[in-house]
Amino acid sequence: MTTVRLPLFPLNSVLYPGLVLPLNIFEERYRAMMRELLKTPEDEPRRFAVVAIRDGHEVAPSAPGMPDPTALPERGPTAGFGDDPAKAFHTVGCIADAATIRERDNGTFEVLATGTNRVRLLSLDTSGPFLVADLEELPEAPGDEAGALAEGVLRAFRQYQKRLAGARERSLSTGAELPDEPAVVSYLVAAAMMLDTPAKQRLLQAPDTASRLRDELKLLRAESAIIRSLPSLPASELTRGPTSLN
User: Fold this and answer.
1) CB within 8 A of 115, min separation 6: which ones?
2) Pfam families from the xrefs (predicted)?
3) Average pLDDT, the chain
4) What number of helices (H) and strands (E) belong to the chain?
5) Residues 134, 49 contacting (CB under 8 angstroms)
6) With contact defined as beta carbons under 8 Å apart, do 48 and 8 qualify?
7) What sign has the CA pseudo-torsion 99, 105, 109, 110?
8) Rounded (5°) CA angle 18-240-25
9) CA-to-CA distance for 60 and 79, rounded, in angstroms?
10) Which of 15-19, 68-72, 166-170 has the lowest mean pLDDT?
11) What torsion do the CA atoms of 179, 180, 186, 189 make, to the nearest 10 degrees?
12) Which residue has the higher pLDDT, 3 or 227?
């Protein structure tokens, strides 16, 4: 078992390997995290782990109205995550490699990171200015018939895109070919589908690529059927992921 110890960044979204994560950092706990990451030499990866929040707030209450009008301000690395933060997070997440960390004049940060490897959360250290986690790296096994499943998922995903966009041609990346490597297909499609966080989390923690692709094929067919019966459903930009308020 390969374990690593990294800063932990909980979000209201799921990060997949290979996907880009833009962040706008303004909370002090995450500003402290970025200042620590900037101490890493530029020729070494500046890594932190991202986990999806199961129960809690991505942005801690800082004043009445932020985000709950009745909430009292909270401080510290566990703010917004209850008495037992470990229960507030999904246990499978993804390592993020920060290619860009740019500090603004007001002390906030603009960060652009990319997901790399899946990890399982083992334990939390809440003693410092930001959360730190001990993590187990999870291998990506191909599973049975991953190649054939990837081809089926790509066909179903193209139909899904057309229906979602009102029969207009679109692709995962403008002007680029869709990938054919099964693991890459599985993560890109998982990120692009319009699913809630629990569904995206289930795809992240699939035991292998083939299992994830099988689940995606079922989801794509079900979602396409729903869209077909709701022709007034507005189109959504599939290639643009959400930017965290942090």
Assistant:
1) 15, 16, 17, 18, 19, 20, 21, 50, 94, 95, 96, 187
2) LON_substr_bdg (PF02190)
3) 85
4) 6, 6
5) no
6) yes
7) negative
8) 80
9) 5
10) 166-170
11) 40
12) 3
Specify the pTM. 0.83
Q: Which helix (H) or strand (E) holds 185?
A: helix 182-192
Residue 107 backbone zone (phi > 0: left; psi -120 to 50: alpha; other: beta) = left
pLDDT tens-digit readout, 95-131:
999 999 999 999 999 999 999 999 999 999 999 999 9
Would you state the torsion angle of the CA atoms of residues 90, 95, 97, 100, taken in this order, to the nearest 10 degrees?
A: 0
Q: Name residue 226's amino acid.
A: I
- Which residues partner with 66 through β-bridges? 63
Structure tokens at 112: 């652009």
